[in-house]
Design goal:
alpha/beta, Rossmann fold, 2 domains, 24% strand, globular
């Protein structure tokens, strides 16, 4: 199934019949199919949540999108370019927020937010002014000179968000950055993230295994089953959230069972 709602001619992100196989470490002659003919597009400024169970290929898709690995077959295009073969072209155009905040413990909050801009060659005055602005926007004004060990988990993820937005990327890639937070802190940060993305006109891909999170952060939801294919595509509308939730649950349970059965047959286990 293709998530083809966005105009491919103007797509910010396009996957076209993408396949990714990994060699099994214990059996070099065999491979593991992680992504199977995956096709979808994302329009500029769109917020898309990618949802699926553990092991469905979400992270592999994420790594293909970030240019960290190369597809076995098919094409990945981000802003019209190949993220793996043209990795350097994407400096400053894509920002990633991980589940782990990935802050440098020897740098202050301010210095951590400045890091991306520093790597892009921005001068110190510009870096400082922009970083302080984002710290203020994310409620961290009084913590600019604190080190990460002095911050709570929620505050550390706010620093990660500030660092990502500070480089003014066109695309934000998020890999479950709020999953380790308590429910109230996570909800508050999701609300702030959504507002920041919309206010700044960013394209957002948010990977999650939480249906509630997907409904809150996605204008469109792509439900994956393994090997990564789209089991369901749904546009989120306020009054239809409960109906969408039920469709997502059905798709996740049904397609996961079908995929598991198919793999068992393929591997000679059934």
């Amino acid at each position: 199934m293709s998530g083809g709602n966005a105009d491919t001619a103007a797509a910010a992100i396009e996957f076209s019949k993408v396949v990714k196989r990994f060699l099994r470490q214990d059996r070099r002659e065999e491979s593991y199919l992680a992504v199977d003919r995956l096709s979808f597009t994302v329009a500029p400024g769109e917020m898309v949540a990618v949802l699926g169970r553990t092991g469905c290929g979400k992270s592999t898709m994420f790594n293909l999108l970030a240019g960290l690995i190369e597809p076995t077959a098919g094409t990945v295009r981000v802003l019209g370019h190949d993220p793996f073969r043209e990795f350097d072209w994407f400096r400053g155009k894509i920002a990633v927020v991980f589940q782990n905040d990935r802050l440098m413990p020897w740098r202050t909050t301010l210095e951590n937010v400045e890091l991306g801009m520093e790597l892009l060659g921005k001068n110190s005055e510009e870096r400082r002014e922009n970083a302080l602005g984002w710290l203020d926007r994310l409620g961290l004004t009084g913590h600019a000179y604190d080190y990460p060990h002095a911050l709570s988990g929620g505050m550390r993820q706010r620093v990660s968000l500030a660092r990502a937005f500070a480089v003014n990327p066109e695309i934000l890639l998020c890999d479950e950055p709020f999953s380790a937070l308590d429910e109230l802190t996570g909800k508050r940060l999701r609300e702030e993230y959504t507002q920041l993305v919309r206010e700044n006109g960013k394209t957002s891909i948010f990977v999650t295994h939480s249906i509630d999170e997907a409904l809150q952060l996605g204008e469109r939801i792509l439900v994956f089953h393994r090997p990564a294919q789209i089991a369901l595509e749904a546009r989120v509308a306020g009054g239809e959230r409960e109906a969408i939730r039920q469709r997502v649950l059905t798709a996740m349970n049904l397609r996961e069972a079908e995929a598991a059965a198919a793999l068992e047959v393929k591997e000679g286990k059934a």
